[in-house]
Amino acid sequence: MRLRFALAAMALFTWGAAAQAAPAEEAPPKPASCPSALPAGARCLAGQDSAGAFYLVAVPEHWNGILVLLAHGGPTLGTPKPTRAVEDLQRWAVVVKAGYAWAGSTFHQGGVAVHSAAQDTERLRRIFVQHVAQPKLTILHGQSWGASVAAVAASMFTDDGAGHRPYDGVLLSSGVLAGGSHAYDFRLDLRVIYQSLCGNHPLPAEPQYPLSIGLPADAKLTSAELRRRVDACLGLDKPEAQRTPEQQRKVKTIVDVVKIPASSIEGHLAWGTFHFQDVVQRRTGGRSPFGNAGVKYIGSPDDAALNASVARYAADPQAVATFAADSDPDGRIPVPVLTVHGIDDPTAFAEMDDSFRRTMEKAGTADHLVQTFTADNTHSYLSDATYPTLLATLVDWVRGGAKPTPALIAERCHQFESVFGANCRFRPDYYPPPLSNRVPPRP
């Protein structure tokens, strides 16, 4: 245990030193075409930063002086492309429609690298200040995996070098906020249960490897081939009524034990394949931070048989320490933080917000946190009225207003429906249970 904490401290010192290094001179962005969803009169700028990340900036015609800086979800694997920033701005066009400037980076490297993405995000903020305008306030918005990036960035960067806080407030939506050392355990559970039921990932004739590494470094498996294997075993490409009884039994076992909807099985399995490969091969020196030794799986027709059949792996302590140092928020955020999560999010469980609340309590910053939840079963986007409501509330709080309550936010959302549509679904009475209620804890 002492080794784990020492390694984590060393890693954090290294990243902290990099964060304090003198920033490189950045070229100014160039005018660019705005995505079609943006309001008329908006001005867009694009560029590539000194580390190689592409970025896109949008400023509405009647700008309210506030910048919303996005840390996008994913993460994307492979070499980032400038089209990623275009897609992000198209998705978050409502931010510009509400009068805010928007800026988003593709990050300079693909894969599960949280501190690196946090540095790219801060670099873009500096570019905006240097070459576009000095905003009155800057809101850091993290979405999905990007919420962990934003949570880390908000505690990494607390001084802009001129004695001011670079971020005035933080908005975390549909966040993967349990930290990488805990948030992805269920995907290993899925891998081992799927293999026990299906036996085709890997196939018997293929080289066998620990499922906890995702894939070996030299594996040639493609996303299309993985999808073909999943459909062959589970029939997910067919309506439920057209699946064989055996396929229905296997799907139900996964749904009941792993506690994910059938529609998200393939996506989570891909994450536990290709993203696990990225983590192990590129981030943790070939060692796996994922393990399921001692985990008891329940909910199947025969739990004893299932537990006896699944492969078991012990997480490597050094890999856990390295991955935690990069991906686990520490909660030391000195500014207001507002979160939102769909209660039935099939991708990043709402229970992760309970983990994040505990993290901020441990750091002594829980008074900076307000959490909200909506009656949604989606992940990537909730509703048009949701985000302007949260941004306006966060700005008022940052400017010295009273700390908002979930009930106040739910009520305030209706004020935005005349402009952004009648789609407010806040549930101020909801409190998420612990993540351990959904994902078996590691002993």
Describe, in plain words, how this protein is organized in 3D.
The longest helix has 19 residues, at 2-20. This protein has two domains: 2-179 and 329-437, Rossmann fold (3-Layer(aba) Sandwich); 182-324, no CATH class. Helices cover 41% and strands 11% of the residues. The protein is α/β, with parallel strands linked by helices and 443 residues long. Strands 1-2-3-5-4-6-7-8-9 form a nine-stranded mixed β-sheet, with helices on both faces.
Defining traits:
41% helix, 16 helices, 2 domains, Rossmann fold, 9-stranded mixed beta sheet, alpha/beta, single chain, 443 residues
Task: Give the helices and strands, then pairings.
Elements: H1 2-20, E1 30-32, E2 43-48, E3 54-59, E4 66-71, H2 83-91, H3 93-97, E5 101-105, H4 114-131, E6 137-143, H5 145-156, E7 169-173, H6 180-183, H7 185-198, H8 223-234, H9 245-258, H10 265-283, H11 303-309, H12 317-327, E8 337-342, H13 352-363, E9 369-374, H14 386-398, H15 406-413, H16 417-420
Parallel strand pairs: 4-5, 4-6, 6-7, 7-8, 8-9
Antiparallel strand pairs: 1-2, 2-3, 3-5
Helix pairs in contact: 1-12, 4-5, 7-10
**End-to-end CA span:** 14 Å
Shape: globular
CATH topology heading of the largest domain: Rossmann fold
Question: Using only CA atoms, what is the Rg?
Answer: 22 Å
